[in-house]
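Hey, I'm writing a tutorial for new members on how sequence and structure tokens pair up, and I'd like a real worked example in the thread rather than a made-up one. If someone can provide the structure for the chain below, I'll link this post from the tutorial.
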Amino acid sequence: MPKSSKIMFITGIFLFFIIFFLTIFVHFFAYDPLLTTGELFSPPSFKHIMGTDQLGRDVFSRVCYGTAPSLTIAFIAVILSLTVGTPIGAVSGHFAGKVDRIFSVIFDALYALPGIILAILIAAMVGPGVINTSVAISVEFIPPYFRVVRGIALSFKERPFIEALRALGARPRDLIFRYMIYALPSIIALMVLNMGSAILAVSGLGFLGLGLPPPTPEWGTDLGRGRDFITMGVWWISLFSGLMIVISVIAFNLVGEGLHEILGTKTSGKEV
């Protein structure tokens, strides 16, 4: 790995641990995110280092507590997309022919759609909530897993050791499972990269009012609500929520790119 890539990877790991520290130990250093102090629109100070919002709630506490919902929804969305896209990609690559053409047309069409638009449409139909928001976001990430695993299956299926296994009576499901195992390094790197995109999608839905219902602390929701008060000179509500989104996305992208370099994997699915 080049030195510059190594520095970026280490930086990503550092930011990564800060985010998880906030998630796990938030109860020890933050107020109740729903507690109203009576100090409305208080600017950042020693008492409230990130100020308070329109209801007098501590912004620092809401930013810290907002870490868990954002990461949870993003993680569930990535796992759902992985669970759907990986086996379909392996099946498509193994059987090829008409099966592959049908699946390729479906997922190419899905891949061409703007992910956030698709997430907005689904979120508007299914409503708010952790699972519903996760499902809405997960659809965006299914095609990359399909394309990556399909490409690996196509490249492995004609290799001598696979032909030997087939001659020895290996069943299609056994070979399909093997393709998914061979794709594991690529899947891991892609998962980490997708976490950053999923957090951005979670925040985008929250910003538009399609994420978690209030008063649940969530970065995108607080960013959207804070926007209404920027013209009043209240900049801190949106700033710190937005900053956490940026830091999280950068952290996962840096770690994902680092894993991509270390494992030498395909993560876009565009190589095939």
